[in-house]
Every structure is written in structure tokens, then in C-alpha cells.
Amino acid sequence: MPASGASGGDATAAFAALRARITRDGPITVAQYMAEVLAHPEHGYYRRGDPLGAGGDFVTAPEISQMFGELLGLWCADAWQRMGAPSPVHLVELGPGRGTLMADALRAARMMPGFRDSLDVHLVEISADLRARQAETLRGADPAWHTDTSTLPDGPLLVIANEFFDALPVRQFERTPDGWCERLVGYDPRADRLAFALTRPASSFAAQVPAALRDAAPGAVVEVCPAAQAIGRDLGARLAEQGGAAIVVDYGYAAPAGRASLQAVRRHARAEVLAQPGSADLTAHVDFGALARALAAGGAATFGPVPQGTLLNALGIAERAAILRRNATPEQAADIDAAYRRLTDADAMGELFRALAATDPTLGTPAGFPERMA
Please, are residues 195 and 5 in contact by the beta-carbon 8 Å criterion? Predict the structure, then answer.
């Protein structure tokens, strides 16, 4: 099993658990590594504290400006109106962070007569610490919490997923001169560290690779996210059968290009993926094409992906920024302008992040999405 790369580890609880597991059972897939590091109930990254903000490891769009959550709230209001204004309707956020996006969306919801009163709020969150922050932020909204989407109640849905799918575990397949192999995480006892390794080539691995990349040159890597595909199929079926709409905003691509995107982020800087497991966030770019196909397989209509900047401008972020500036101090106005540029500029989040929508097929094209995926 030849090593395809290596990286240091240390005495974190996750490293000790992984070392013991691999020593006992052998190397694990990259997806198994991500699941262990991120979601383990005792030492998983998302089980410990609040990773957001300047004092954490990363910042998300809702923390940059209230405009982001407000506009997604208005997007949901428009979808609700297209649905025939059902009551009740379940407003669901996947991976709600501190609850900032939901709070901003609920405030904007009051602009549509009857919409706020029709909503019941559901949050899909595994972190106890973040649930506590969400409860504080959303005091009065009476949210219900879920560890996954399987326990969401029946009825029409409005779903928001901002930077949720990028944290789901991915399998990695690498092209070698002898064929496609799966990348694994093993343990190097001589260096006392985790290291990447490869399985032997197999036709079952090649079958996981998109047809357009199966003859790629050696060194090409394809990432597949089984969890995203499963959630997409289930969510697509819910929307088709019970009505509703979903919007996904994340960084990613419309089709894989044969490069690995898995990365670790610690204190707002890149870190080694296998170093100090459990102390850094792990994410991989979202394959929007695969996610859209999964949603469509469930029966939903899909739209996009479109760049985040295109979506926000179509939803009226420039007008909202102008309104906020009217009563702002010069310092506040400068912050509003900086947030607008960061969310929409092509050299910031405007092009890196993309948005995908899925709806009940009877609803037509949702706001901000000029095209439907084939």
C-alpha cells in the first residue's frame, strides 16, 4: 500500500483514537477520517466550542453582514408566496452556526404579510455549544433541533444550507498509472504520524469517477460525497412530494476538474489535513453538479448554480446596503460597503461561492436563478 503523502500528527484526543483504530483495524477512507475528526461525540471538531468569528477558525457570510441572511429570508418569503402561502410551513436551516442567519431571515420575514406567523423553525445541528448559542440568538423563535434531516416533520419545507455541504465527508479517488485507487489514511509508526496511502486499483473505484475524467492523467483526484448525495435525494423527494424550496450556498464547482480540494483551516489559515486532527475545520469544495443530480433524482426541479454575487445582486443587496447607509455613521457606512464588496466581488466571495436552488417542480424559476440545470 504505497504512501501518497504524509503529514504530522500530535497528541490530540482524535489523533490517539485514530492511531489506535488504524493500528487495530488498518487504514481508513478519507471519508471515515473526516467523520471521526469532525463529528465524533467526544473529540470531534464540531463537538467542541464555537469555531466561528475572529477568535475562532473561520467566518461565514451571515457573520459578515446582516444583509446576507435578510436576503435569503426574503428569498424564502417569495418561495412561500409561490407555494400558495401554506400554514404552517417548516423553515429549516442546515448547519445554522450561531443562529445569526436565521435571526436575520426571521426579521426580514416580517416584511411579507402572514409569512412570519406561518413559520415554525427547525435547526439541524450536532454541536451542543452551538445549539446553546442558537437558543440565545433565537430566543422567542422557539426552534426545534435535529441531529440530521431524517427527523424533520412532514409538511412543506423552506430549507437554507449555507456552508453545510462542504463539511460532509468525501471519499477521494486517485488515478495512478495502473488505474483508479482510493486514497486512505494510515498510520506511520516510525514517525508516529498519520499518512495518506492508496489501495490497489479496482474497477469499482473507476466506476465512482465521472466518465469525462476516467481517462485522466495519473495524479488526478476526484472527490465523491455520499452523504451529500443521500441528503440531496431525500430532500428532493420531500420537496416533490410535500412542497417547498431549498437554497444551498457554498464554495464549490459545477463539475470536478480532477484536483483535490480537501483542506484544513485553523485560526483563519490553511493547515495540514492530517496534522493535529480535531483541532481544525475540514472542508471540501461542493460538487454542485452531483448535488443537483441527487436532488433531481428525488424529484425536485433544480436551478443554478449561480455565483453568490449574482444571486445577491439579483435579490437586491445593493438596494439594501443603500438603505442601511442612510442612518449609519461614517464608520458604519464604511463597514457596510466593505461587507457588500466582500460578499459580492469576484475576487472575494462573489465568485468563489455559488448558490443552487431546488423546488417542487410546480413552482417555476425561483428568485435570483435565471437558468434551470439540465
Answer: yes
Residue in 369, 307, 303 with CA at minimum distance from that of residue 344: 307
Judge whether 9 and 274 are in contact, CB under 8 Å: yes
SS3 178: coil
197-220 pLDDT, tens digit per residue, is 999 999 999 999 999 999 999 999
Q: How far apart are CA 304 and CA 314, in angstroms?
A: 13
What is the average pLDDT across 221-235? Answer: 97
Q: Which residue has the cell 410551513?
A: 89
pTM over 0.85: yes
What is the DSSP code (8-state) at residue 346?
Answer: T
Helix, coil or strand: residue 97: coil
Average pLDDT, the chain: 91
pLDDT tens across 306-318, in order?
999 999 999 999 9
List beta partners, residue 269.
266
For residue 205, CA distances in Å to 200, 221, 223, 260 come to 10, 12, 11, 16
- Helix 100-109 to helix 66-82 angle (10° resolution) is 50
Contacts of 16 (CB under 8 A, 6+ apart): none
